[in-house]
Design goal:
Number of helices: 10
Number of domains: 1
Shape: globular
Oligomer: single chain
CATH topology: TIM Barrel
CATH architecture: Alpha-Beta Barrel
CATH class: Alpha Beta
Largest sheet: 8 strands, parallel, barrel
Strand order of the largest sheet: 1-4-5-6-7-10-11-12
Order of helices and strands: EEEHEHEHEHHEEEHEHEHEHH
């Protein structure tokens, strides 16, 4: 059985790591290069870098910062934010990214997924989905950093995207984001059990048990967290030891 992965996420705004709650109330969380080095040394399995305002500001991801981080870590590195073309992706892969995360641009132009998959291989293409559970009980796709609601249900979009060549799903629950009340197990479980690609759960980590729950109950392949790692409320070695004691396969 493949080891479950623990992945810190660096949300980047104006060159700094930031964190919010439910995608708003953004606060500074530190220098991204220093944090990346720290997580690499701590035993994180991968690192995700999301330039959270690139799409809204209609600009490309911060290539210089990506290059600087990549030079200082020795773990797989996923980069997203403002990537709208195969050439954008190529530039980031040339500057140290191992995988590319696409979100709004892929939804608006689904051919981008196939184009990137054909060019770089599906293992390089991560489809990020920002999702929110509405009062009708369904989970819908949101775009532009959670600012625009669509009428597309999350599972339908994820299924379509994986058929087009997305090799992994990064699923962020807007309802759970930053609350520290646990991951969205229902939608994570649906995607994990129905799709043939790995699903990364994101949004809501607050305790060691939350990670265990999303791996055991929701069958997630990986779990992302930000604030609990940035503010050292949970240390990655302690988390992995806890999960290992729960008989969850992690790389120690």
């Amino acid at each position: 059985m493949l080891a479950k992965r623990i992945i810190p996420c660096l949300d980047i705004n104006n060159g700094r790591t930031v964190k919010g709650i439910n995608f708003i109330n953004i606060c500074d969380a530190g220098d991204p290069v220093e944090l990346a080095m720290y997580y690499s040394q701590q035993g994180a399995d991968e690192l995700v870098f999301l330039d959270i305002t690139a799409t809204i500001e209609k600009r490309k991801t911060l290539v210089g910062l990506v290059k600087k981080i990549a030079a200082n870590i020795n773990i797989p590195f996923t980069v997203g934010g403002g990537i709208t073309s195969v050439s954008n992706a190529y530039e980031l892969l040339q500057n140290g990214a191992d995988k590319i995360s696409i979100n709004s641009a892929a939804f608006k132009n689904p051919k981008l997924i196939k184009g990137m998959s054909d060019e770089f291989g599906s293992q390089c293409v991560v489809l990020a989905i920002d999702t929110k559970k509405e009062i009708d009980g369904n989970w819908y796709v949101y775009l532009n950093g959670g600012r625009i609601k669509t009428n597309t249900k999350t599972y339908e979009w994820a299924k379509q995207a994986t058929k087009s060549g997305a090799g992994e799903i990064l699923l962020t629950s807007m309802n759970n984001d930053g609350t520290k009340n646990g991951f969205a197990e229902d939608i994570t479980s649906l995607l994990s059990n129905e799709l043939k690609v790995p699903v990364i759960a994101s949004g809501g980590a607050g305790t060691l048990q939350h990670f265990a729950d999303v791996f055991i109950k929701a069958n997630a392949d990986a779990a992302i967290a930000a604030s609990v790692f940035h503010y050292k409320e949970i240390e990655i070695p302690d988390l992995k030891k806890f999960l290992s004691e729960k008989k969850i396969n992690v790389r120690l």
